[in-house]
Write a structure and sequence with these properties.
With 129 residues, the chain is an alpha/beta fold. The chain has 5 helices and 5 strands. The chain has a 5-stranded parallel β-sheet with strand order 2-1-3-4-5, sandwiched between helices. α3 links the parallel β3 and β4.
Length: 129
């Protein structure tokens, strides 16, 4: 889904750079945030189609931030996808309960990531990695 906007919330700088590069090369417009506060700040002026949300953030974790975002009327329709190092199959229900459309695992499959996000944006479940 070329031209879609994505906010990547990831505290690991190398993961953030990698995801940003892969998505930009696939035509996505990308903004980045290293923690919940930076994400909330970015969302004041930027409404992405999708948020790729690291679960283990410093301070407010990614699932709590997702709950807060989904409680806001202006952000309720933004697709949030959890990104976790936990086993995806066991973590999927926690991510969905927090308001995520689904969950992708780390390490990130850079070849599959753009297509996975496109599937989430279209409302279809992406194949977990």
């Amino acid at each position: 889904m070329s031209e879609a906007s994505v906010l990547v919330v990831e505290d690991d700088e190398s993961n953030l750079k990698l995801v940003r590069f892969v998505l930009e090369q696939s035509g996505y417009r990308v903004r980045a945030a290293a923690d919940a506060d930076a994400a909330l700040d970015a969302l004041r002026t930027f409404k992405p189609a999708l948020i790729l949300m690291d679960v283990q953030l410093p301070g407010i974790d990614g699932l709590e931030l997702t709950r807060r975002l989904k409680a806001r009327e202006d952000l309720r329709d933004v697709v949030v996808v959890a990104l976790t190092a936990h086993p995806v199959a066991r973590f999927q229900h926690l991510a969905r309960a927090a308001g995520c459309a689904g969950c992708l695992g780390k390490p990130i499959d850079t070849r599959a990531l753009p297509d996975q996000l496109t599937r989430f944006l279209r409302g279809a479940p992406a194949l977990a990695s």
